[in-house]
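Appendix B. Worked example

We walk through a single record from start to finish. Start with the input: the chain for Recombinase, Neoroseomonas eburnea, length 803.
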Amino acid sequence: MHAGALRASKGVVRPLPGGAFGEAKLPPRALDAGMGLAVARRTVFRPEDRECFGRVADRVAEGNMSLLGRPLGAREVAERARLRNAIATGALITSGRHLQHGDAQQATRNMEVFTNCATAIASFAKFYLLLNGSGVGRAYDDALVAVDWAGAPDVLLHLSPEHPDYPQDRAALHRFGVEFGLLPWDSSVAAFDEAAVRGFLARELILDPASVPEGAIHHAVEDSREGWAKAIERLESLAFAGASDRRLVLDFSAIRPRGAPIGGMQGRPASGPLSLMRAFMAIRREVIAPARDGRLAEPWEQAMLVDHHLSVEVQVGGARRAARMATKNWRDPGILRFIRAKSEGGLWTANNSVMVDRAFWRGVQAARAGSARAEDRHALAVFEEATRCAFVNGEPGFINGDMLEDHRTGRAREKPVHHDGRDVRSARYRVEHAAGLLADLSARAAEAHFPCTTNPCGEIVLHVTGGYCVIADFAPLLACPMDPASVIPGVLDDATAAEWDARVEDSVRLGVRFLMRANSMDALYAEEVRRTNRMGIGPTGLHEWAWARFGLGFDDLLDEERSAPFWEALARFSEAAKDEADAYAEELGRVRPFTVTTVKPAGTTSKLFGLTEGAHLPARRQYLRWVQFKGTRNEAGAWHADADPLLADYEARGYPVRELRSFPGMSVVGFPTLPLIQRLGLGDRLKTAPEASPEDQYRWLSLMERHWIGAERGNQISYTLKVYTDRHDLEAFRDILLTHQPQVRCCAVLPSAPDAALGYEYLPEEEVAEDTFQAIVAAIRDPALHEALDLAHLACANGVCPI
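Next comes the structure step. The output line below is what the pipeline stores for this chain.
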């Protein structure tokens, strides 16, 4: 038997994956200088890593293997060494959450910190997950909303005047007034109306909780993620019970002050109690009051507003992303209002999508052909209004709910209804007040038309009542046993090709085992994790791999005959993922994973090594990548004390830095980026996303779904397809959607003007002309950046190579 081999049931001997990486420590791959190093410094590296990705791999592998919960035998020790090598070389990048939090203490942590993807059916659960950094999807179907916020109690808020964050002096009152929207952003400390801010405090807060009449419910908000969510659970459960005649007093005095370090977030600064209080003020003012007087009568719309106000505070806290997906059944009477929620309602914190099915697309076509049937006319009205809004601001999108794996197989409807709150229960968080609400919602979900929705980026199918998916990236290019830049594209000797392919397959198999161990962690949705054992592993840097390994550009990949070796390899790795999932589940005594394959956006992981992200084409040839950091300057031009120290560091080295107005308290740093794919010598065979037609990109997605996602046990592909409005008008956009969107599980189709015409304060990626790019790079005092962005690469890519 091979080293580490295991004799499985039926006498089959299974070798331990990872042999192609060996067990002797391999040197770590260098991160892409500039952007890659910046991302690692912000979200991956700890002081003890000393900016070495090999040390990151050491702790991540150790932490993940510790989840077995027993002393490691020789086989597990070998697997840990192989896993470490796969991560250190970049072949198995896992995900940003694992790279950030993975260490020897992982078994003592909660799973929420390690899950990228989740859903929630109640606001308190959604808030808790956002606070843990998860992206959260929620379905706002009429059938899936049970709380009428008109039934909420009167909410009274208290913060001790002794708390460090209670605004006392003029400077603190000015900052409070600006951040609570009482004063304009350009107001000065010298000139603002102090009495107006003090009057607001007197109206909105109570100084003495003991002064509240007898019978009020008093709740002290604890200084933890769990404590913050528990306050929302208390309020939401009272609203469900119809307690409008009660008073709820929330005391925020125990929450640590602004700027204090958060231990579980590598010491990043806390946002303090005022941020959470601002959310409760907004819910009181924008949801409860209008719900009571009839201005906000629909519970689904109330729920969207509650979630929005909570998400705003998570996002401006700066340490977590607050990514959300909001979906709604196309059949609901309020669907047209949902469609306009972003353009007219200002609800900018979620990606909004209409959940549709075959009946919807048939109805649109039938109504276009003259059908007078009511459902067909409704489908057409939804389609036309959604596309009208999307053509202006990109949303909502369409998700084919009946094509999602758990809907298609019927497994979503197998989830039992529990009445004791076990659906939301972990060692850290236990439902106390909302068990009845959750049971009601679970019963509703069992009968709902769409029992599944997706995570914010659309690549994972999850039950509407709540579920997780742990996800990971592998990078087939970085599994190359030599420097990929030294490979003659598509020209390899048999031994090198075989070793490269073996490393890719080992990355996939090791990644599947890595994710299954993560599914054993203490989790809020432990019941659902046990039921589904769901995971999602997917490739990133696909276009670099296609070129270096097979000598194929994007246009070649659309020719299935010419690119057959690429697609055959991808399908083989997909089957290997599902085979390993079944075998390892049997070994651990768990259920076969409901889903295994996916393609996630891979933003953080791909940037570490300069790769194209997930299934996406390169967006641009050379550009500035703008990254948000928490912090702004004071009137003297110095950074505030609680600003991220990296802002001053990057500014001192000459990187472009801007303060933001649309994201209060945030600034952005621009990182000159020359993608790795520009450095591999594709020349005129390189195709960027703006250069590829929508039809070609849909074909690419269909091929990826067929060969990687597979017919069974696959999630979806997260993909944003831009349709440029200077080339396609509204009717052309509608024709593109109607022809192609019904053929894929989901795809975010984003009408977009050229960058210069968009009018946004900033774009995450800003393409710049070659001469401007060179000038920006020249002004930056960072030797590592200059080494990585040797501008001879740029000259070669544009046909004027000096060599």
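Two observations about the output. The two ends are 51 Å apart (CA to CA). The chain has 28 helices and 25 strands.
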